[in-house]
Amino acid sequence: MRKRKLKLLLILFVFCLLFILGACQSDNKASTSDDNDSTTITLWHIATAGQKETLENAVARFEEKHEGVHVELVQQENDPYKTKLSVAMGGGTPPDVFHSWGGGWLEKFVEAGQVKEITEEIDAENYLEAGLAVSTFDDKVYGAPLGMSLVPVWYNKQIFQEYNLAVPETYDELLTVIETLKSNDIIPFALANQSKWPGAFYLMYFAERIGGPDLFNEAYKRDGRGFDDQAYVEAGQKIQDLVEMGAFPDGVNGMNYDTGQSRQLIYSEKAAMITQVTSFLDNTRKDAPGFEEKLGFFPFPSIEGGKGDKSHLVGGVSPTFSVSEKSKHPDLATELVKELTSIESGQDLVDLAGGIAAIKNVTYEDEFSAEMYKLLNEAEYLQTFYDQTLPPEVATEHLDTTQALFGLTITPEEAAKKVEASAKEALK
């Protein structure tokens, strides 16, 4: 009898154990099923402040439309981002969707077969022609633009008023402004040039104002003048003239723009002007709320006797979004790009970041955005950023030599010859 009870208890124990194990397996299967039903799309970007909020809003709309899909937003600083993306692309571990500026920087990835073509997936009519052009190669589209970026000279209106300074129309008038500011212990131009691109705005503007709007295209297309043209030599000389007259703070090549070192000179009113992209306003709204009331902007002045004009602007597309060829979810990634560059996103960029949309049918109620958009529409020529248009090796030489010009460690002639030598090799 006792043995029979023990046998029954043993059978019952085994049955219970099997039941528990079966339940655990069912739970595990359910968990695995849930995991398999969830899809993650990675998005790498460099947006901050209002631009970041614009992307977050787009992602929220996308996730609402695509149940079970999660977008992982990975924010990076500008300069480290470029290196990290290049490494990820080369290593075969890129994000599904990534920020770029189009031009030669994106084209190198396209030529390597690392970017998905999206010509048929997007409606080109939704975008400004100039915005879409930078990510179009051989009539095939590899990216969709969200914003346009211009480079005006931002200035403190109160400082100008205090010292009876008028907005300069010519370079000679700008030099007078610089001398007046210096005599009152105010730094004329804030500049943080550790990452090299902020100082390049001066070279691009001087070269255009002296050599005219065709100068860069002739050098880039190897059809006429080169990067060693006298206009580039004179542009380099004007940079060094400004450095030597004290137009910039000391040690600009050691100052970091991403961490706000030049912007803080503006906010603290130690400096009166800064030549910087449209997103400077977005940074100001985040860094120093209310300071924008003191800000104005004007086009970089014309140079007497030069072939350029102050209606010619330096600018580009920022950002444009592309899909990696290695994405495991290319269709979803493309849909995300479309959401990131929708009319809603364009409107957010204007309203939240004071930006200029590369998307049509956006309204401009933000005062700064409206004025900037007007400036863009009235521009007779838009000079795209050299470092985003040129092949990477030439862009690097351009940035390196321009930084050296600010450091007074190279002559203008040497700088021009170095860039031309690089162009001859890369642009055969």
UniProtKB/TrEMBL annotation:
PROSITE patterns: PROKAR_LIPOPROTEIN. Keywords: Signal. The keyword Signal applies. InterPro entries: Bact_solute-bd_prot1 (IPR050490), SBP (IPR006059). Residues 1-25 form the signal peptide. Pfam families: SBP_bac_1. The keyword Nucleotidyltransferase does not apply. This is Sugar ABC transporter substrate-binding protein.
